[in-house]
Amino acid sequence: MFSGGLDSTAMLVKLLAGSEDELRVHHVRMVNREGRADAEQTAVERIVAWCGKHYRPFRYSESGLDFSALEAIPIDYMAIAYVACQVAIDTPGCTRVAVGTLARDTDEVNRSARQRRVFDTMYECYRARKLGEAKIEWIYPVHSLEKSEITALLPPELIKLTWSCRTPVRTPSGFRVCGTCKACRARAGVPTEPQILQVPAAPA
Ligand SMILES: [Zn+2]
Q1: Rounded to the nearest whole angstrom, what is the distance from the C-alpha of residue 186 to the centroid of ligand 1?
Q2: CA of 161 to the centre of ligand 1 (A)
Q3: pLDDT digits over 37-90, tens only?
Q4: CA 176–ligand 1 middle distance (angstroms)
Q5: 181-189: long-range pairs with CB below 8 Å, 24+
Q6: pTM for the full model?
Q7: How many angstroms separate the CA atoms of 118 and 23, rounded?
């Protein structure tokens, strides 16, 4: 499950460079009142293209959840569990789901347990229809890494393509980071941190 952020990209690089696993990389386009979907999408497309060229080819897909009419911001990790289940069922022979969760994330242990619970409950419904593999394991390839280790793992050129800000500010040429959201604060001081994201203007 791939978001286009720093941790997620480090996970992707680890799996591409450090394993022979056949990967299906999936991005959930999360449309909500934060307004981050377009910035994330642009980052994801650029990272996927870069990694396919510099590491090895892999299958990529995406889906979207549009909550833009809601005032409340849905919880990401539950949305990820929900989509991961559909993607697992859609991927013949899939036995593992990888997420870029870090041990240092707030409330990580409880969140990961809840996320797997949502997934397991849904997956059971498919298993009752004899779909999917008997067992699915969740893996956390970058779980134990510190932020410095995450950035050390990534070529600077690739770091520049990642996007973390949850509430980007739209500019005439693309987006710039807000600098104050949780993701921006967690990312402060990362070398070659992107501050702006140039997006080609949409065709008139
Ligand atoms: Zn931000």
Answers
A1: 10
A2: 15
A3: 999 999 999 999 999 999 999 999 999 999 999 999 999 999 999 999 999 999
A4: 9
A5: 183/5, 186/147, 187/6
A6: 0.93
A7: 23
